[in-house]
Amino acid sequence: MRTIKSVSLFAILLIAFVLMSGTAIAADPIEIGSVDDLKKIGNDIAFPLGGDYVLINDIIITDSTWNSIGDRNNRFVGTFDGQGHSIIFASLTGTTTLKNFDGGNREPDGFGLFGTVGNPSSADRIEIKNVNIVLESNLTNEANSVYYNWIGSLVGYVHVSSPAKFLMNNSSLTSNGNFEIKGKNHVGGLIGHADYGIFKDCSVSGDVSITAENNGVGGFVGHVSDGIFENCSVSGDVSVTAKNHAGGLIGYVPTYVNFTKCFVSGDVSVTAENDYAGGLVGYTLRAADFTNCFVSGDVSVTAENAYAGGFISYFGSGLIKDCYSAAQVKAVNEYAGGLVGYAAVVGYGYSPVTIKSSYFAGTVDSRDKLGGILGDYYYIAPTVTDCIYLDTSGSGFTNSFGTPVSSANMMKIETYETGGSVSTAWSISNSPNPSKIWYIRENLAYPQLFALRSNTIPIPSVAELKKIGSNEYDFVNDYWYTMDADYILVDDIVITDANWSPIGSLSNPFIGTLEGNGFTISDLKIDLPSNECVGLFGVVSDASFSNISLIDADVKGKLYVGGLIGRASNNVDFINCSISDDVTVVAEERHVGGFVGRAYNNISFSNCSVSGDVSVNGVYYVGSFTGYVNNYAVFSNCSVSDNVSLFSDNNMVGGLAGYVSKGNFSNCSVSDNVSVITMCDYAGGLVGYADSSSNFARCSVSDGVSVTAERADSGGLAGGLAGSVKDCYSAAQVKAGNRSGGLVGTVTTSTEIKSSYFAGTASLISGTNSGGIIGNYFGIPIITDCFYVETAGTGFTNSFGTPASSADMKKIETYQTPNVVTNWDIVPAFDTNHVWFIIEDQTYPLLSSIDLAPGPGPGPAPGPNTGGGSGTGQAKVNDSTPSSAGPILNESPGQGFTNENLSSNNGSEIIYPDEEGGSVQMSYLLILIFLIIIISCIVYFWNKNRE
Fold first, then answer.
1. Neighbours of 141 (CB within 10 A)
2. Statement: residue 870 has pLDDT above 80
3. How far apart are alpha carbons 122 and 500 in whole angstroms?
4. For residue 171, which of 131, 178, 352, 467 is within the disulfide window of CB 3.0 to 4.6 Å?
5. Which of these ranges, 139-153, 473-487, 537-551, has the smallest mean pLDDT?
6. pTM
7. Could you tell me which residue ranges the GLUG domain spans (predicted)?
8. Where are the beta strands (DSSP E) in 820-947?
9. What does pLDDT average to over the chain?
10. Whole-angstrom Cα distance, residue 779 to residue 747?
């Protein structure tokens, strides 16, 4: 009996350990990559409502109806990480009707991408982060006849028991046009109704109308009972309308909410058709605190009957400190105030309203009960200290809260110092100072909040682009166009200058960031043949460039010449950038590249591309990405394709770079009519000369690429190499006067080449050194498990690599023992868990990381999306559809391998049944373990009772 008891207890402990150990395995997030995946959440055993999800690409919902994820009976209680990707509502009918499976009744329910999330009885926290919702259609719901239908683009109803149980972070709504979100009650841009929650770094922007037919509407949230808002905003051309309780950020707060660094700005209209309209919040029944918040721009706040405030219309209790509003405030009948329409202590235990160190610079209008800071109050007078308002903000004010000041004096720092218009000096300086709350540009602008100083300056046209680094101050928007600022394109930029002046110099380099936002920069013309450091930017250092597309450019300089940058140094990053569509870059002397002419000390390119009629020419050091990089460079997931010409009059030219010291190349490709020519030495499909332990992994150069060094050292991957090559291939046409190699022209001591092959031709113009893998060497290299097609050339002068027939190179057994020392990581079908895949008797080995969907003929390896622009001023969404790739050398026309062999949906998405199966198997395993635990417990207690 003791034995049975012990065994049962041991089983319980063992299984508990297995469960705990398996948590790490089961905790891997579930990937969402399509609309169908989204629809499975809560409707598929492998996609539970309590799961942890990650979005792996942008998703477009074209359905005219959308069944919200989770309803009041089956709520979403997991986590969802958008990873910065977008979900676009783009119904083909122009309106997306939101539904849920509950069917609608008088019980509370939510409508949105997610309907109802959270469970008040659960100890778990629901988290939604890094999700971008994009409107390209209207949003409404099917239950407009029902009182409770709470609607938001991201979440309809958050139903949790405390603020800590729900976190929304770094998420946004953007409207690509004049679209509407409409419901009956509690309607918000992102969330309809939240019982509780913490909201950080979220925004609503664009041209959008948000409407509640009855009560409770906000630009961000329609109704929130209790929560924390930090760094949240509503901006752009936004219209917020309800019968009652309308707020620029939030419509209605019945309990308590804390606001820090929140704002409403732009052309925002807040309207209550009856009562309670506020620039930031429509109505707080009990309490709220506001710190470092503002309402600015062309913001109008209107109550058609009563209660309107530049910040809040009805304020039950709480604090406003270090805030300002510049709204146009109007209550048709009564109770209008610059910051607060009406203050009323609502019950025992609540303190009076306090307003400190704040100002109003808009207008106030009402028939009765109005003021520059406060319209009126009930029961206990608010405490208003050190607050001022513009003396032209209105007339007939019925109270004396706050101090009126002229516009000129409101722009002077002395106004906010002791002895000025305040009794206690504000925390203010005459320039941005992190130790102060406020700063002021004297005689230019009213005080601004340091905590909400604009971190990113929008660039809508070439006029603003030219201001970068000018130190010009835009006092209306508080933008300072310095070299260290962060900039973002908000529309396609067409450069009209006949001869552009590069931004940044050696003495004053650009050290900020430029986010292209998917837009294009076009018509760049620079003709400075005697100048150094020539490009859109002349000199940059410690800078970052992302999501930028340069098209239709003609750039000429003397040396250090690039399409985007002439000279870069010290940690410069390029992320998802492209150069395409008729671009010419020329250096009269040396160091010329499509992106950068010359770079020093750590430069990186990630998901970047050069394609479509691009020409880069110079005397020496020439590359489509960069001519020269000294001391560490990273190229990851980069591509060159489609009519690219690279020419050097002297030395070192490469598909990606002319010369690289300490370079790391991974998942890079060159394909489809690319010409690499030097009239002297060192031409390479990827790099002219790669020095100082440079490494290549999973890279390819496809047929259709020609590499020529008229004098010496030409290679399908590199003209010269001191480093390593692993899991790479080339099918280029390689030619050199001397030292012509299928992969590398000349290698140095300790160079290692493994598991790679050559399937092009390597020939000599006049010399004697050539080979299927390398042309020549200084010191014995280490070359193992490498192959070249036996028709690659004749008269090879070294025996590195194994020649094989075209037929044998299309068989998987060629790459397995005993034909190799170490088996290649290769499988007979596309599989991202393996480096290589091969279609027997039809293709040479292909790289799973870049050769996604081979077709019946040679084609370019898929590169990153290059955006493109429509000139609409709207955000763009990338298309990630792969193209064909790799050296597909079919000897019988019409017998090629097609997408149908890999995918059931015309190549737009590759489906791997084993992945779903793995998730299902894990679910079954957990159920089995749970049953074993129950049985063990029964046995244990049965034994105990018998004792």
1. 30
2. no
3. 61
4. 131
5. 139-153
6. 0.58
7. 185-209, 214-239, 276-300, 591-615, 650-675
8. 826-827, 836-837, 846-847
9. 85
10. 8
Residue 101 Cα distances to 42, 91, 107, angstroms = 11, 20, 13
Sequence-ordered list of residues with C-beta below 8 angstroms from that of 395, at least 6 positions apart, any chain: none
Q: What is each CA distance from 839 to 393, 836, 903, in whole angstroms? A: 76, 10, 14
| Residue reference for tokens 């009856």 | 274
Q: How confident is residue 349, by pLDDT bands cut at 50, 70 and 90?
A: low
DSSP 795-824: S-S---SEEE-TTGGGSGGGGSTTSSSS--
Q: Other CB atoms closer than 10 Å to residue 893's CB: what's the count?
A: 8
- Which residue spans within 563-662 are E strands per DSSP? 565-569, 572-575, 578-587, 590-593, 596-600, 603-606, 609-611, 614-618, 620-623, 626-630, 633-636, 639-641, 644-648, 653-654, 657-661
Specify whether the backbone of 679 is left (phi greater than 0), alpha (psi in -120 to 50) or beta.
alpha
Q: How far lies 135's CA from each of 97, 595, 703, in Å? A: 13, 33, 42
CA dist 664 and 98 (Å) reads 48
Round to whole Å and give the CA distance between 155 and 162.
Answer: 17
CA 37: distance to chain centroid? 21
| Stronger pLDDT, 87 or 879, i.e. the higher one | 87
Q: What is the mean pLDDT of residues 368-390?
A: 94
Tokens found for residue 322: 């270090």
Identify whether the C-beta of residue 183 lies closer than 8 Å to the C-beta of residue 192: yes
Question: Which residues does 83 contact at the CB level (< 8 Å), separation at least 6?
Answer: 54, 55, 56, 130
Q: Answer for the pair 673, 703: CB distance below 8 angstroms, yes or no.
A: no
Closest CA to 721 of 667, 760, 776, 671: 776
Residue 918 is inside which H or E element, if any? helix 913-946
